[in-house]
Amino acid sequence: MDEAIFYIQLIMSSNTLIILSLFSLLTFLSTFINAEPAPERIVTVEELTATTSAKHLILFATLKNSFTSEMIEILDSGIPLHFTFYIELYKIAENVPDEQVTALILKHTMIFDTLKENYKVTLEEENNKTHSFQSLLEAQKIINEINGIEVIELSQLIPDNLYKIKIRAELYRKTLPMSLHNILPFFSWWDVKTGWHTIEFKY
User: Fold this and answer.
1) What is the number of other CB atoms lying within 10 angstroms of the CB of residue 52?
2) Which of 86, 81, 103 lies closest to 171, judged by CA?
3) Under a CB-based contact definition with an 8 Å cutoff, are residues 78 and 114 in contact?
4) Beta-strand (E) ranges in the chain?
5) Is the pLDDT higher at 125 or at 10?
6) Cβ neighbours of residue 99 under 8 Å, at least 6 residues apart?
7) Is residue 71 very low, low, confident or very high in pLDDT (cuts 50, 70, 90)?
8) Can you tell me the mean pLDDT for 90-98?
9) Average pLDDT of the chain?
């Protein structure tokens, strides 16, 4: 009889532990279900300016809100970040479709040299010239900027016509090695894209 009571108590204790475990799990999950989502980070292209040099149409622009603390941690571990800028120039007129005149794709790459303990930024528009910085802020400024890009020769533009330049950026695409995709699957900064930003001008 005593042995039967013992087994009954053991079963009840086991069931109680299971119920308590389930309750703890549900409580844990509810903190995520009921939690307010983190505000979405919006990356934008700002300070968009088109002007001319002696022979070229040139463009200036700056990425805003492009970096997160997660990105900096990954960067400091030696994994590079890649920013790609897409630039398109159109001739525009009333009642006719926009006519694309030219298009550019420019890549900026940033890496932390763990041996020299400095940041290196490589700019495709400067024939892949690499700039070195001790300061993270200075390196961020360079990778975020389109600084006087030669879009097209002025001889290819028609005077007294309207044009528009569109630019967007794609950040960090395929920057992690495939071996890390399963280890770090939830980084919010993976593959971020801006919308198109446009300015119009008369040449």
Assistant:
1) 13
2) 81
3) yes
4) 44-52, 56-64, 81-92, 99-113, 118-123, 129-133, 145-153, 162-171, 192-193, 197-202
5) 125
6) 90, 91, 92
7) confident
8) 93
9) 81
Both tokens assigned to 47: 């300070």
Residue with tokens 């801006």, as numbered in its chain: 194
Domain ranges of the chain: 1-35, 44-202
Helices (H) and strands (E) in the chain, counts: 4, 10
CB neighbour burial string for 163-197, b if at least 16 within 10 angstroms, e if fewer: bbbbbbbbbbeebbeeeeeeeeeeeebbebebeee
More confident residue, 68 or 59: 59
3-state secondary structure of 29: helix
The proportion of the chain whose per-residue pLDDT surpasses 70, expressed as a percent, equals 70
Please state, in angstroms and rounded to a whole number, the distance separating the CA atoms of residues 126 and 171: 19
Pairing of strands 192-193, 197-202: unpaired
CA distance 86 to 75: 23
Give the pLDDT band of residue 25 (cuts 50, 70, 90): very low
What is the third-level CATH fold of 44-202?
A: Immunoglobulin-like (2.60.40)
Spell out the residues 6+ positions from residue 36 whose beta carbon is closer than 8 angstroms to its own: none
Per-residue pLDDT, 35: 44
Question: What is the C-alpha to C-alpha distance for residues 51 and 177, in angstroms, rounded to an integer?
Answer: 39
